[in-house]
Structures
1.
Amino acid sequence: MKKKKENLKSFVEDMRHELAAKLAISQDALDVFMILNNANQEQFPDSLTKCLKDMKQNLKDKFQNTNIQTKLKNLHMKPQNELFTRVIGCGKQCPFCATPCDAGGKAHTEHWASLHRPQGLGRYIRVDTQKLVTDICSSSVISDGTFRCHQTNDQYHPYKDYKKIFLDWKISPDVSLEASNYWKYVMTTYNQGFATKYNAEPAEIPKSWYSISYKQAEESLKESFKLKDPDLQPQKNTTSRPGVVP
């Protein structure tokens, strides 16, 4: 800004206006300059420029010599804890497949997940065969299937009415053939490992799951976390009889 002004007050007001988008200068701070209203206008910009350069260097030196870890420990609010809470979510898991709630932080009353997985990964097994369940709950909730667990007093309950049991969960219907390819791939690849871990029999993997490639699984994961709701239609699902392994 190179303009000749009648006095220093006009100069400073113009400078404040020019820097408004980058630097907030309060009116109280501006009033301090009024005692310099008759100062030499040619000398003032040079002095101001030098002052700003010195200030920049001082701040740079201060930050370089500041131990960030010590600074964080002395803050009343811990930024690292707030960031962790927002990223990791509330810690709640889907009651069927155990996928974590995607709602950031803890300031929400309804839990949801963008990508559900086969219920066997949430330790659901079929009572009659003791095999891990391959049903995906985002499809189950629009099926004619039933489930039972300790929340239902071990009585069968329709998936369609899951909200009566799990009031704080919202499971969006998803019958896309590709939406859960990632977890289908994972369960197919590590079926025996999950069965051993959960003290159950390996799941009966649908034949179509074996044709899912690593690349398809990766693309499915990327697409799912765009958080776009697809235009979905209901799909029939066989009635399952799962139980919960504690």
Note: The two ends are 71 Å apart (CA to CA).
2.
Amino acid sequence: MTSDDDDVVTLADIKKAREIIMTSPLNVHKTPLLKDMTSYFPEIEQSMKLNMKLESMQTTGSFKIRGVVNQMANLPQEVKSGKRKLITMSAGNYGKAFAYTLNQLNLSGLCLMPLTAPSNRIALIKSFGVSVEQCPSSELTSEVNRHVERENYIYYHSFDDARLIAGYGSIALEILEDDVRPDVIVVCCGGGGLVSGIAAGIKLSGLADCRIYAVEPEGSRTMFESFRKGEPVTMAVNSVASGLSPPYAGKLTYRCCRKYVEDVILVSDREIVSCMSRLFDIGIVAEPSGCAAMAAILNNRIPDVAGKRVVAIVTGSNVSISEMTSYIQ
């Protein structure tokens, strides 16, 4: 039994996850950190020292593979033998990483997806040999529970899992290894797993004064409202950034964010799409969900950045040219 004051993950957990991830045969990369990017964006405070961590260049096109590899590092023997299967629910990038990893391990599983999931994402997950079932978003949790109870599936959560959080914390270690001692880190936030891992990794590495901000879409503000209410909330969500739009904040991620995250910042869908266009103009492909952190910076939402070393995480690039064109028009 743990209390809310206990660490969701420790620095040892994060370092172990980094070792697992980087020695995995699943081709997880140490992603580029672009330094001295301020001059590319004349609309921002020019004394800011802007760095961009491109998880958009990660295997499967997003940071999710880091967490999934750590999450599946010690699969139960009954899963490895095929006697039981894994189940998850995801609208996109976690599902892709989940399916890719199972495919590489020659295992099958089931991904439950909302009715609104893009058809190309569904086809991609199926191409890895993982089954897909769709249902209304409001019924996803009950459907997962039904499969677990009736068909003996093992459920792996797509964001509220300490193993995922530790895996995402490996990004913080990479930032520090690249000789950047950040004053501010800005992270896209959906369920909160990524920002939890990065924030824990930074703070537990001794950077007590570094401010970490989570950024959510205005229409999918579950962590923002959780901070205001003082507990994880469930609410209706709607945003062009579907990957940042789970209908609730996780219990573990909320605890971690409350302990290590300075504040939750909101950006509009219009600002997210505009940021996607700006990044494309300088040669960086990012999906809407991958743009929220940079959108907050470009619209001057992050306080006290003059002269500060700032790192923005660009989290994913899973967007087709046709999708990008439809967003930007």
Note: The first strand starts at residue 33 and ends at 34.
3.
Amino acid sequence: MAEANSNSEVSPNMTIYINNLNEKIKIDELKKSLRAVFSQFGEILEVLAFKTLKHKGQAWVIFKEVQSATSALRQMQDFPFYDKPMRIQYAKTKSDIIAKADGTFVPREKRKRHEEKGKKRKDQHDANQAGVGVNPAYPGAYGAMPPLSQVPYPGGAKVPEAPAPPNNILFVQNLPHETTPMMLQMLFLQYPGFKEVRMVETKPGIAFVEYGDEMQSTVAMQALQGFKLTSQNPMLITYAKK
């Protein structure tokens, strides 16, 4: 897939081309982070990034709707992504997935098929690992972090607790297991006062996000409440218990 040289030369379409990306980031993490950041603009069909030297620092995000791609291009232009401002244009060449949908697809190399098989194997492995060795009593490694008693024990009912009063730390639930701290940081650092994201390896699906004060955390909570990192995982955000 060739990249676009200028927005003026390319008609708006469902695929955006992104360059000036940090080349030190691993491909799998890069693709997950891009999906996390751009899914706020609409349904994403695919995120493409390759390890070859020719394609380093580049990626393509394929949306289901042209309007989604246009919104993403306008709002995320120069967004600081892994310490580098993203450069975004409409893709010059129609992506395979769109070509298949409209009947103009011409078979090329089998690279994507291999990538998809590898991803399925990795996802299955991650899912298996997530269900092994979880110790509900594990206290966490963060000492001063809010107590994990608010986390439901796997497979067991828990007596409802009163919600925590407003404070500067948010408790985020219902995250997909493949979520990384960097993916969450990209979302939450858009709001003033962001300090850090903390995740617990033994408790997949949750995270703590800290802001400077409760007003700043409240703004972020209201803005991202229900945000979907995947179509099955709307985020549930509350104030953390201290």
Note: DSSP finds six helices and ten strands in the chain.
4.
Amino acid sequence: MLFLEFIAGSISGAAGIAFGHPLDTVKVRLQAKSVYKGIFDCVAKTYSNEGLRGFFKGMSFPVLTTGLANSVVFGSYSNALNYISQSDYDLPSRCKQASSAQVFTAGCLSGIVQVLVCAPIDLVKVRLQGQTAAERYRGPIHCVAVILQEEGVRGLYRGGVALALRDVPCYGLYFLPYEVIRKALTETGEEPGTFAILMAGGVAGVVTWACATPMDVVKARLQMSGAGGRQYSGVLHCISVSLKEEGVRVFFKGLLLNSVRAFPVNAITFLAYESLLKILCAPGNQKPSLQSHIYHKDASSLLSQQV
């Protein structure tokens, strides 16, 4: 089960990342630096100075490691929900009801595990995306080597507290709107269609990123502080300095881009994940899809990747 989930999560996650990475690059640069007047100015300067290639900086590393991230998130989420609701992996047990609080708690636990495993991956991605004219890092491996040499192992977790403050509650929130919308768009007793999965996944992504953006700004600034950016002593110092110098609006930098990017990326990721599981699983031994990770109040309606 976990192996199939890893395969499906790897491919679906890679598809989502490849689709949304250019917008993510613009978002990171807007959040971490104050040299851009807005989205279009950032896009224009990036294209003028670096060409199309500039929008795909740092993409190879998260694409290659997204299988790990997806399997960590959804594997830990599934196991946590099973433990909290005292259910088993067999299908009849999965029909048990789980409350919204149990779903939220399981999502938060998966967020904790994700931060511990994937914080270095996110740091390298942000560092590579933040490069403009000066090529401090030649690639992901060189980036890791430089960080270890200059900051030690601890440097790989720079911005980890902000990442945890962003991901732990937001992973808890991520699964709830998906379930509500998917169920609302599916006839009772029937499998969810393509439209239902796309809409549910897209809206879930937008809702989650709307809540995550303020701490995402803080995280990006802390991560870039070790690469020649403004130095901050921690999360609270970053928040206070940013608030004092740029006002409350600074914490919503990239919100529009996050929302625009989140809908198609999460819609594609969810749809690819569900479709791949159907292909990978034998007809007589089908693994419950992502819908079964969230337990429905109606036993006739059964549910790996985020963000």
Note: Residues 88-96, 291-307 have pLDDT under 50 and may be disordered.
